[in-house]
Hints:
Elements: H1 8-34, H2 50-53, E1 55-63, E2 71-80, E3 86-92, E4 97-106, E5 109-114, E6 118-120, E7 124-128, E8 134-138, H3 142-147, E9 149-156, E10 161-169, H4 171-176
Parallel strand pairs: 1-10
Antiparallel strand pairs: 1-2, 2-7, 2-8, 3-6, 3-9, 4-5, 4-8, 9-10
Amino acid sequence: xxxxxxxxxxxxxxxxxxxxxxxxxxxxxxxxxxxxxxxxxxxxxxxxxxxxxxxxxxxxxxxxxxxxxxxxxxxxxxxxxxxxxxxxxxxxxxxxxxxxxxxxxxxxxxxxxxxxxxxxxxxxxxxxxxxxxxxxxxxxxxxxxxxxxxxxxxxxxxxxxxxxxxxxxxxxxxxxxxxxxxxxx
Length: 185
């Protein structure tokens, strides 16, 4: 079928094509602005659960353990785009032992302490990073190490769980950014 610029269906077809192009562009812009991690999207953030609907997890990673050491550290940024505060009370994995910790500076130096909870207010974020809040991760399964990905669930005070994964960053990569810095957790 050949459309003429004067055919009655041509305008409708043109509008439909333009709408699809515009929707595609908007979707790609939204992903680019959010810095969405396409390897491990927070796809489990269900719109059916208001506590999860506004959460956005980015930059989730785990430093591969030093050979012979059973422990490492994990990091991420958790953003709350919702209208109510959410409280993170834990992180679990079927492939490792995970605890939330924080690093504190005290008179005699620094120390790590277990972290019971983190409240993220609306339009705020919490950053788990070296020298601050972080995940202590022990006994990482050989399967997770081989896959270079550790499945995790972030647990909120209301019982909601946000499923994701931490990319396992090889030691050669994470050591490049920390020459002389021993505050990796």
